[in-house]
Amino acid sequence: VPPSFRFPPLREGNRKLARFPLRSRGNLRRGFQRLRVDEAVVAAPKVYIPGRTRTTLEYTVGQTRLIAENQQLETDLVLEYQGTVTILEAKNRFLSNFAVYQLFHPIKHYHQRAKAKGIQVPHLNACYVLKQARRKDTRIRMYLYEFSDLDRIDSIRLVRKAEYCLRVR
Question: Using CA atoms, how far apart are residues 127 and 103, in angstroms rounded to an integer?
Fold first, then answer.
């Protein structure tokens, strides 16, 4: 498994022009929601406060079993909507690639915690959010990923991607 994963290119169909006031948090929430529920905005997701923690994770890469002891995890944001939990990793600039563990470790940790507490999470995924602020607008790229096997870091798969352009009216 390569140490990083390339962001796929965005095509015209993935780009959306949104004329929202930049300071409105609700508009960004709607953007996340549209990405997650196929453009049908029906309700606001539950939002959980970000934080840092330490944990030990055990998983497989290729044929190698790893035990990552005392790993520090940082979760930027967690959203829950109709049984789907989305863990977000965000950066204030556009990047060409990322380390897969930045998405996998928080998902694995969340899954372990839910399992230990007897909580069923029907669907768990991760969204990488990149923001580029410019003079006239702000561009936000969103890449939604899933892991087909929560015991394998190399089971990552892109589900959906989109770019939003927020302009001041």
Answer: 8
Predicted TM-score (pTM) of the model is: 0.75
What tokens does 146 get? 């899933």
Mean pLDDT, range 129-144, rounded to an integer: 91
Exposed (0-12), middle (13-18) or buried (19+): which is 71, by Cβ within 10 Å?
Answer: middle
Environment class of residue 32 by beta-carbon count within 10 Å: exposed (0-12), middle (13-18) or buried (19+)? buried
Contact between residue 78 and residue 110 where contact means Cβ atoms under 8 Å apart = yes
CA distance 121 to 85: 7
108-119 burial string, b = 16+ CB within 10 Å, else e?
bbbbeeeeeeee
pLDDT in the model for residue 159? 93
